[in-house]
């Protein structure tokens, strides 16, 4: 069929509404729900323009891209409505179409109104695969869509042109990581580092991450352990005319199998290197070491299980003698391997592994540790890299700890909150703040004020550390506690115990005259004398809903609101907030 004939066919498909969508689910595997579907357009079965690559390539050549894009959006929304679908509708959009002067403005909003789909249900995916001709105009177009209420996603992040730049400028609601970084991620430390970096950046920018192209259970499990919630790929559902409505139970990762912090487990320093069968001839293994000078050891596997490890110095020692080749060349490597290597599960904490190394006097810093997953070989971890990571974590924790109390600071607090949200488990956050602390400092001085802060830290530690709860020091007189695996009544009881300890001893930080008066006189902000009661402890407690609180930022807003309620009283008070999500801030576009 000639090019002109194909163009006529394309026009006919558009005008006769013969294009139809297939829907691929986007799932939140942590909560076990389908959050939406991506619409993938198709032409009639068996037609030369059935598949999107040919369809959009021809439309671009024939300058019909705008017409095709609108036809696709219309077909997707119509099917979404007919199927009574819930959640988000992800629509792929060529970014250059949004900048096309001939592209009719307001058409997407009119279509959403026509089919009764709220703009906030629609996610416009801007693919990074297309070379963007005019980023300035694209930015204006995207801001226009955001003002209308549509959500924005950057698709195929990492595939090419300007994803990170768009991300920083547009602040999208979603980023979708290109499938290249997902394929066999459990076998690639480089891909894991890339995805972990994107997750960290997304947390800071309050963006949701969707990973595409998940095809194997191993890929899914690796991503789940790393804290990825939103998943898409053939494993979870192939594109189909009718939507997938629920997540199969087989795809859900049991909560007990989720690492508390991927970055602090041995999995974070694993390298997947070549392994050899236990039956491999020793001469072949010698050749492998000879050809690769960087190789220091090789795991030896038998029926997917770890049989042992062969180290460079060991095999060189065996073959160095006059009769080495004659004695060992044809023997299986199992004959000369170390049958009892140091081996740990992939979710073992770095601290535990460090202790194992410390307790073993024969371990060499340049050796490798075998890492297994469900008793099957997963990779190796260099002891040198392990110690380097532990040092990094300790330095990082020390850098961010509060210098006055040595309690963890904001970085650790945020990390713990993110972990709890990703596990979708019930937890409570208590925000502690002193009432009238500034006037106390004005009268008694900052050194005495610091003594009170350290004393309050000791009270919190005494009451909470023994129960395994987390305590962090935000700064000044502000503290945070995170209560895990206890109910509301138990949380409130422990907070009230803290208040009783505080009330019992606070007077020792005052002169008798102020104790007799029940407070102090100090200047207010406008310079007028004001009477301030004795210091009180305000505690605002919240139970965040992981489905509504997207990150530690939302939890911080929620806890701050609860603390403000607690501070309405002059004295000490524990306020148990019933709300589980914060009041949303008004979105401000980059132009404002």
TrEMBL record:
<dbReference type="InterPro" id="IPR000644">
    <property type="entry name" value="CBS_dom"/>
</dbReference>
<dbReference type="Pfam" id="PF00990">
    <property type="entry name" value="GGDEF"/>
</dbReference>
<dbReference type="InterPro" id="IPR000160">
    <property type="entry name" value="GGDEF_dom"/>
</dbReference>
<feature type="domain" description="GGDEF">
    <location>
        <begin position="425"/>
        <end position="580"/>
    </location>
</feature>
<dbReference type="GO" id="GO:0071111">
    <property type="term" value="F:cyclic-guanylate-specific phosphodiesterase activity"/>
</dbReference>
<dbReference type="Pfam" id="PF00571">
    <property type="entry name" value="CBS"/>
</dbReference>
<dbReference type="Pfam" id="PF00563">
    <property type="entry name" value="EAL"/>
</dbReference>
<dbReference type="InterPro" id="IPR050706">
    <property type="entry name" value="Cyclic-di-GMP_PDE-like"/>
</dbReference>
<keyword id="KW-0129">CBS domain</keyword>
<dbReference type="InterPro" id="IPR029787">
    <property type="entry name" value="Nucleotide_cyclase"/>
</dbReference>
<dbReference type="InterPro" id="IPR001633">
    <property type="entry name" value="EAL_dom"/>
</dbReference>
<feature type="domain" description="EAL">
    <location>
        <begin position="3"/>
        <end position="253"/>
    </location>
</feature>
<protein>
    <submittedName>
        <fullName>Signaling protein (EAL,CBS,GGDEF domains)</fullName>
    </submittedName>
</protein>
<dbReference type="InterPro" id="IPR035919">
    <property type="entry name" value="EAL_sf"/>
</dbReference>
<dbReference type="InterPro" id="IPR046342">
    <property type="entry name" value="CBS_dom_sf"/>
</dbReference>
<dbReference type="InterPro" id="IPR043128">
    <property type="entry name" value="Rev_trsase/Diguanyl_cyclase"/>
</dbReference>
<feature type="domain" description="CBS">
    <location>
        <begin position="269"/>
        <end position="327"/>
    </location>
</feature>
